[in-house]
What does this fold into?
Amino acid sequence: MQNSCAEIKIRAERRIGEFSKKLPSIGHRPKASHDGELPKTQILKDAGIKHHERYEAIADIPEEKFEEMWGCSGARAVWFYVLMHLSVQFK
It folds into this structure.
């Protein structure tokens, strides 16, 4: 049961990451731009989404590799991949 819950959570976070990546990034200004668009970070914050970088990293995992990880070790394998990806990205 716990593994099923973890899988549902990570798959949902992957979808959030896919949507987040499609949002236009217009900077980190707290207010709307001159054309009325809110910054990506503000849209996500308003939706209650924190850690969108993490979710985008999960979305960046190729579909085949993502499914293969579930066959191996499930959530642990996915999070290990994400942590490695983020640590390389922010160095």
Remarks:
- Residues 2-22 form the longest helix (21 residues).
- The two ends are 37 Å apart (CA to CA).
